[in-house]
Design brief:
- By secondary structure, the protein is of the alpha/beta class.
- It has one domain: TIM Barrel, CATH 3.20.20.
- The protein contains eleven helices and 13 strands.
- An eight-stranded parallel beta sheet has the order 2-3-4-5-6-7-8-9. Strands 1-10-13 form a three-stranded antiparallel beta sheet, with helices on one face.
- Strand 11 and strand 12 (330-333) form a beta hairpin.
- Helix 3 (86-94) packs parallel to helix 4 (123-132) and helix 5 runs parallel beside helix 6.
- The radius of gyration is 19 Å and the shape is globular.
- It starts with 5 loop residues before the first strand and ends with a strand.
- The structure holds (4S)-2,6-dioxohexahydropyrimidine-4-carboxylic acid (DOR) and zinc ion.
- (4S)-2,6-dioxohexahydropyrimidine-4-carboxylic acid (DOR) binds next to loops.
- (4S)-2,6-dioxohexahydropyrimidine-4-carboxylic acid binds at residues 18, 44, 109-111, 139, 221-222, 252, 266-267.
Length: 346
């Protein structure tokens, strides 16, 4: 077979992004807007985005931070807490302020301490979301501190997700940034109401990568990367052409000082190299013909949105990418920065 050196796909979307706010937002947004037409914006700011008014204001700040000429569209989300009001969730949805709500089990990850302590507390919210067809986006890790960090997703999938889906059989749910065989198999078995996003980094690194030659704080994210057999299962899921898996980078910038610290933050800043990394993976798996489904079609189909009109072309070969970007006096390290990607945006 001749080698493919260029591929053009429908303009993709990113179904899981952390843009932050202020100077960080202004520094990172252009990278996401350069690759993706739309993105689901995570609401874990400090304080979190819990009201429709907060979300509308945040959306305004994102639109204002777009580079000149950019038509990038942020799709906002509501941060669920123990005291979320179902009427507020519905109001924001009806007004078109937000498209989905995010469930962070309290304390599961960065800025998740305002999250939900007990799913029973949001039962009426979930019932309302089911009724109005509003997707629930789930950070799927148990917060039980006794559970080994590498098992937290599998335990969530085994113990917490099944009763949640049983109680709300019509609820649309995205299990975000899946990292395990257990999650992939569960999603397959519960499609089409259940879907999953998969990040570039979880397709490229395993848990050994976190300690290659020494501790690698910039590869630390949550859920943490798992064993190689899990990475291989994720690659099969992403590239296999199944509609229940789609692109969500979980690009999550933190200043270098917050990553290279005695207690470093979780999150990989993968926005600038996301599509290049995904394309490399699809190429390595002999599945370039399936990239468009994963990147540009499965997500809109799940969310009930049209696919984008435009297209984007990638070419084999690397373009030097920055190792880090400047944010004021600070810097944020880019995942696979330098010239390590084998594909580039043409
Ligand atoms: O690694 C992560 N970083 N995982 C998350 O769930 C949150 C994110 C962040 O906000 O930095
Ligand atoms: Zn995230």
């Amino acid at each position: 077979m001749p080698q493919t050196d260029r591929i053009t796909i429908r303009q993709p979307d990113d179904w899981h992004v952390h843009l932050r706010d202020g100077a960080m937002l202004r520094a990172v947004l252009p990278w996401t807007a350069a690759q993706f037409a739309r993105a689901i914006i995570m609401p874990n700011l400090t304080p979190p985005v819990t009201t429709a008014a907060d979300a509308a204001a945040y959306r305004g700040r994102i639109l204002a931070a777009r580079p000149p000429g950019s038509t990038f569209q942020p799709l906002m989300t509501c941060y669920l807490t123990d005291s979320t009001d179902p009427d507020e969730v519905e109001r924001g949805h009806t007004q078109g302020v937000w498209v989905a709500a995010k469930l962070y089990p309290a304390g599961a990850t960065t800025n998740a301490h305002h999250g939900v302590t007990d799913l029973n507390r949001i039962r009426t919210v979930l019932e309302r979301m089911q009724r109005i067809g509003m997707p629930l986006l789930v950070h799927g890790e148990t917060t039980d501190p006794e559970v080994d960090i590498f098992d937290r997703e599998a335990v969530f999938v085994d113990q917490i997700l099944p009763p949640l889906l049983r109680a709300h059989p019509g609820l649309k749910v995205v299990l975000e940034h899946v990292t395990t065989i257990e999650a992939v198999e569960f999603v397959r078995a519960h499609a089409p109401n259940l879907a999953a996003t998969i990040t570039p980094h979880h397709l490229l690194i395993n848990r050994t990568s976190l300690f290659q030659g020494g501790i690698r704080p910039h590869l630390y994210c949550l859920p943490i990367a798992k064993r190689e057999r899990h990475r291989l299962a994720l690659r099969k899921a992403a590239t296999g052409g199944e509609a229940c898996f789609f692109l969500g980078t979980d690009t999550a910038p933190h200043p270098v000082g917050a990553k290279e610290a005695a207690c470093g933050c979780a999150g990989c800043f993968v926005g600038p190299t996301a599509l290049q990394c995904y394309t490399q993976v699809f190429d390595e798996e002999g599945a370039l013909d399936r990239l468009e489904g994963f990147a540009s079609r499965n997500g809109p189909a799940f969310y009930g949105l049209p696919v984008n009109d435009g297209s984007i072309t990638l070419r084999r070969g690397s373009t030097p990418m920055p190792n880090a970007i400047a944010v004021g006096d600070d810097r944020v390290t880019v995942f696979r920065g330098g010239a390590e990607t084998s594909w580039s945006i043409a």
